[in-house]
Batch of 2 targets.
Target 1
Amino acid sequence: MNASRRDFLKQSGALVVGFALVPSLGIAQEPARLPGSLQNNRRLDAWLAIEPNGRVTIFTGKIELGQGIGTALSQIAADELDVDLARLDIVHGDTARTPNEGQTAGSLSVEQSGTALRFACAEARDILVSAAAAKLGVPAADLNVSDGTVTAPGGASVTYWDLAGAADLKREASAKATPKPASGYRWVGKSVARRDIPKKFTGGAAYVQDVRLPGMVFGRVVRPPSPGARLVSVDDARVRRMPGVVAVVRDGSFLAVAAKREEQAIRARDALKRSARWKETESLPPSGDALYRHLMSAQAPAQTVADKASATAGAAVKTLDAVYTRPYQCHASIGPSCALAHWKDGALTVWTHSQGVFPLRADLAKALGVDPKQIRCIHAEGAGCYGHNGADDVALDAALLARAAGGKPVKLQWMRDDEFAWEPYGSAMVMKLAGGIDAQGQVVSWSHELWSHPHSTRPGSTPGVNLLAARHLANPLDPGLPPDVPQPSGGSDRNAIPLYDFGNVKVVKHYIPESPLRTSALRTLGGYANVFALESFVDEVALAAGVDPVEFRLRHTTDPRARAVIEAAARKAGWQPGTRGDGARGRGFAFARYKNLACYVAMAADVEVERATGRVRVTRAIAAVDAGQIVNPDGVVNQIEGGIIQSASWTLKESVRFDRTRVTTRSWADYPILRFDEVPEVDVVLVDRPGERFLGVGEGAQGPAAAAIANAVANATGKRLRDLPLTPERLKQALA
Amino acid sequence: MATFTLRVNGARKTVQVEPETPLLYVLRNDLLLNGPKFGCGMAQCGACSVLIGGKEARSCVTPVSAAVNAPITTIEGLGTLEKLHPLQRAFIDEQACQCGFCGNGMVIAAKALLDRNASPTGQEIRQALSGHLCRCASHNRIVRAVQRAAREMRS
Ligand code: FES
Ligand code: FES
């Protein structure tokens, strides 16, 4: 990728010249509340520019990570502006050019950035049409806009591009312009082909790995062998004399090397590894079942998340309880983390696949001891990350190494074992469920108690610095103890509060901020494990009540949108109430509304069980999804399909391995994931809600898929597995 | 360092590198090709795949010295944005990825498959691709893309 093209171009003559990203709010009074991310990025010209050459640029703080957000946002902007989709260029996540929208996370991009663009573009259209009205001497109401050409009834016309100089977008948004009704959309609601895909299949420069700068050298990092290890000695002098080596950085236990050629950097890394002596300590928790006892014995106060007493619920005639567990799990991106850093005259530019270029910049500034203004972070895509992986960490690695490389740009790529051993994992969790039913089989009491480490330790989540290298420096920086993500979206307790109409609900969490293994956001935070437990337990209670699982869910659901997806999934799957598995085949059902706030997903899963080996194969999954107003139907289907299959992989196979000292998951051999011959067929039914709020879908399928699979295994075998993953060993043991 | 002449995408390229240098780094860093990706460096994932003499090879573990005797084809050599190979067109038409990082290897493995079996069944496609990992879980779309390309190439 030609980096100079990515440099900030002063767009002289364009409608936007040097726009301000930070609103100047010298006034004491509270500014009006603006929709979506407009609230914190209030200028119109922060969001779009009308170029005299007939192009429109939109700016978003949300980044593309293969979820198709660039395409969805373009669809929204094109519709509000009345321009052709092909006219749009989009700039993602660049601290010098785009709004600061924090992290691209939580399936919030369409809601936050899409809503902001919707209002900003609607307002820009009004401004442009008013300018056209003045120019043409015709009332604005009589004008018609088509692909940026504004036409008067008599046929006289003027284009947005002619008006670029006359219309002023250098102003605060008012959000007073009315966005289009759903009936007026041309692009929103269509399966528009994703704009990022063609270059990905033709060897185009699509990823941060493809960014090349003149004089660039290649970096590798040498991580300690274990989280508790400290570097005692290393013969770096010898490595400095190796062919091609440009720089070796040794700062405390941080060790990295840059070389002219990539394979030279790798050889130098190997040499450093061989000569380094470390002092290791047993800092890790026990594994296996002991891990969960360890979690439950942590000093973490019980915090009440929900406590809803019911005046009408009667006494329970039957009570049940069960404990569910989820191990540490990896993001396991196909491409290990990578960044490119370039120091010039004391200023640093970093190309990064971080999900939050602004928070990353703030943490880099703290770690490097420079003013944030001296750092520019530019997003470039990485491999899919599904949350907070090593993307931010590698940016600091590259910056530290580049600082020693004499002004040469450094591209630093983690090796596979760096990624597996050091990415922050999805936290291990324990969920203890208890419930009671009355004589009619209605739930009259429900309790969900959970134990978990943090699910969000991204840059910016604490006053400290959570960039990996910062804790290894001779003067280490404290990552800080992150608070849990509060309700209503929740972090460790995400989706722990049942959406069903249960009597007497109590949800309690034990949040353990100190974690011996690094943990952070993995797609859904605690939602995956909580939905797995909750929806498994719903089936256990339904079985105790003698009610079909789908019927049981419907009996406890009044939310019409929840009912609609449950019914749609059951219908599409041809759900037969009361069907028992035959020992080898079974079918399960589950439902959740992600975060209890975003998309609704209900799902049926079919499994085949090999009793002799304990092997479970998911053969088919049928999901129904309500994502509010759908921007790009195929994009939604793609996310849900991927979510279901990824969740099937987590659920059947995945667990980080470690002993008391070291993480022993180092390669794909230690961390198998689902392969082509193991993936289920997936059917997705979309329940479109034109005119409703956009609801994110990126994470909606993970929890329901896990529970539907576990419920299907129970349906097939009559045995309930409550520990993830549902491995052959566990099933064999249950069947023995 | 030694001199090696490779035939890559129909052109002769000469590079000066150590003989054991993995082909991947020569392709990416000397020949400035973006297609082959570093995923694991251990022949486990398939992100780096290329065709050598028409056979799929993991360029991350193929020393450059072992790649001089047969023509090398990368995804760039199959087709371009302007003139797509049917496989590339099919992957785009099926929107057969999320992040797309695995896509290079999928297309290359599919090319090798279709060259030896013009009408593979779904099962055969899954078998042929089972050594390729996709973390975004675009598997079913990828299978559909290969089927679509096979149809187009037959007609
Ligand atoms: S990078 Fe070569 S197989 Fe993974
Ligand atoms: S599409 Fe992301 S790894 Fe396959």
Target 2
Amino acid sequence: MTRISVRVDGASYDDDVEPRTLLVHYLREQLGKVGTVVGCDTSNCGACTVHLDGEAVKSCTVLAVQADGAEVTTIEGVAGDGSGNGQLHPMQKAFHEMHGLQCGYCTPGMIMASLDLVKENPDPSEDEVREGIEGNLCRCTGYQNIVRAVQQAAAEMRGSDGNGNGHVAPAEVDTAAAPHVVGQA
Amino acid sequence: MTAVEERTGTTPGPEKEIGKARRRKEDARLITGKTTWTDNMVLPGMLHLAVVRSPVAHARITHVDVSAVREAPGVIAVFTGSDLAEEQGSLPCAWPVTPEMVNPGHPSIAVDQVNHVGEAVAVIVARSKTAAQDAVELADIDYEPLPVVLDMEEAVADGADLVHDHLESNTSYHFVFDAGEMGTGSDTDQAFADADVVVSRRLIQQRLIPAFMEPRSVVVQPQGDNYTMWSATQIPHILRVMAAMVTGIPEHKLRVVAPDVGGGFGGKLQVNPEEILCLLIARRLGKPVKWTETRSESLMTAHHGRDQIQYVDIAADREGNLKGLRVRLLADMGAYLRLITPGVPALGAFMYPGIYKFPAYRFECDGVFTNKVPTDAYRGAGRPEATFAIERIMDELAVELGMDPLELRRKNWINADEFPFTTVAGLAYDSGDYETATQQALELLGYDELRAEQQRRRESGDRVQLGIGISTFTEMCGLAPSRVLGSLSFGAGGWEHAAIRMLPTGKVEVVTGSTPHGQGHETAWSQLVADSLGVPFEDVEVLHGDTAISSRGLDTYGSRSLVVGGSAVVKAADKVIAKARKIAAHLLEASEDDLDFEAGKFSVRGTPGTGLGIQEIALAIFAAHNYPEGIEPSIDAEATFDPENFSFPHGTHLCAMEVDTETGFVKIRKYACVDDVGTIVNPLIVEGQVHGGLAQGIAQALYEEAVYDADGNLTTGTFVDYLVPSANDLPHFDTGNTVHSAPGNPIGAKGVGEAGCIASTPAVVNAALDAVRHLGVTDIRMPLTPERVWRAIHRGGDGGDRATAGSNAYGGAQTETTAGVSTDASSLGGDR
Ligand code: FES
Ligand code: FES
């Protein structure tokens, strides 16, 4: 057992962990941070993505001991300026607005990866979003609405110097859902 | 307490919810990480299971020693096949497609023989998941190898090795549908004898893995003689019935809950061995237990889909008038029959004629046992295979006749004024307009420009060739009329149940038997009820997925939820209104017949200013101080809806594909589709379902294949090798809709869950072939890997297997000495 100190979603934890314990298992099983999920055992799916000192990492590829002294943000700490409660982050809002999720299993990882992407590239093109989230698999959505969501969130985040309170200019993203519905029976 | 409030003037009713792109209610918990996945669950004293699995495909178990496991730290118990043999029964198969069908039985845990890699041979129970997993390698089990049966064509040959040596052959059943014999068409052999042109093809539907993102997980809690099972399942209701029958636990002592479920696609339409094992072990130990699979376990042991060899013959005259269709299938069952394993190809039987007017049709299918994990439902289940076959062979016929593939289709499809139309397979197609959908799709794609570009590239001998693929499809959805299912020997009905509870504060609880796992029922059902009852969308809560809350239901599959489950909700709402009408008449002192109900309010016709909201009536009847004699003080209602026919969504899917003739790399240039799914309740959800379906259908064409090596090991056992596409592997989709409402249900919906997946695969393959056909290519096996495409272009044939048999990419080390040697059979279309 090794002793580690980490801050997760704004709270401090001191814990004994086995040296082999993965960060994702520490988060889920020891801290009850079950918002972060496991989708594979080969680091391919990205469902477990969290931020480690501000950088997106697949938490199944990091040992808990490697997070010693670090600041971890999970999906549970994204809303309300890090408290996890209160106002949704523009990225969460955009996934909701653009129907960027169906079953939602990939969503925590997808949102965490997208936040990192937008930090690096505040105005990504469709292709840049597709490339940027390549490490995260979604089996439900076919990705198109995820791409729309990331672009919409990026626009909103740009709109107010990164404070996330701006409004997206409608022309900037393709927000039309089922635009070709010709009529209703 | 004043239940009746005087209102003056008419308040404008809420705008229509049906057709509105409502953002989903479900999202709030899913985007904040406040979800209840089964694996999140922790119960006091809970123990963790790990499964010891067979490393060999076919063998007798000769020796089992788990004493070292028992001694391992943290291990509480270990169970082998013989420990559970007496009580495990057989996993159910609910669809005996023929009376003679052979079912070898399916133990949850192997007792003396294993029949596929990954079959459970022991279960370890420990204090933690890691302790259980650590002990797996301590199990000492000896196997005496038996010959491994993998290839279907070899498996049905005389003298073949047997998967189950107590059976006479590897054939489980022989299913025939003959339109001539059924009276829905003319004699097929005669039609072929008389035809000018016959085209025959052998098409391969490779084996796929549903690969839902949330791995399967089960928790069982015993409480006295009661058991609660939480499972990541699509089918809590069916699971409850089946688990009760298998284990002998009385049904009323068993509650099944599907909490938030992370995708299914048919893959969680199953009664899993591990669900039964958890139940048996929880019963033995009297302790709560949990099992959650790893991704590798999931790919290896959760059921697979597709895996058919299709021999398709089509007959026509010189002018392109279709004369007959003949289909013979070999369908890989895997080692056992699971819940609807044999029914999947049989369900497809009725869809091979597609949207065309064939005078004659015959379908035959052999269900074949092999030493692989069983196949079962995967998005579309039988219908994608049928659509692929018919849409591929229509293109082949067009080539043979020298006709434009669209012209050939147009010449033979059912015209808009011919609905309802009874097909040669005996199905009554409900409504649609193939021409309009096709026109719109052509415009969306920019068909004419792309055809011109294709011509230019072809003439200049461009390294990158362009092709356009067409798929004009229909499918049978809304599973299903119970009597029809009965006539097909399915073990259950196809109705769905709903209940509506009007709470005293006017809020509404809707209980549905259709259990969602990403489809957005909570949102769409709220829209339905908001319109029916005239209550705000926000005032509706949808409850589902727990047999203690929603006692009756048949769950979610086969694009049935809205069509059948949504209709039950609408019917229940009608009953609520009918009951409330009596109360309203009493309170308004008017005759029932003089009441109008609009926008949630009863008013007396011709008396402006009168009115009583249904939410107010809910409170009045809760108090029950003043209601008519002779009726019950409740306006709650329930309804069960059993459709009289299937619904038949249709659409035209077009794919423009670039093929790099030097590298074999294919790239979708543009994908456009126009689907008719009937009335659209929520366009956002409909579009999302189409997108997701397209992704999976395109993935079958381009990326995914479950590959077994010569020893029966799954070589695509992780996400490194089983290529679920990422955002970067898929194109932008241009989608559209036409709307012809379904006459068979009160909503007019046809179902959308499977459309994209069914339609897209042949469009993509047809596009690739269209790009390189002039180079002598006649077929390319799916998935269209660069290697296969390159081989097809440069060496002819269909591009052969995914990799040269014996090479590492094909499946690594083999027992045969031919490893690494490319033979014609292996590289040019030989089958594994
Ligand atoms: S669980 Fe971490 S990448 Fe899949
Ligand atoms: S929403 Fe289901 S996996 Fe992405």
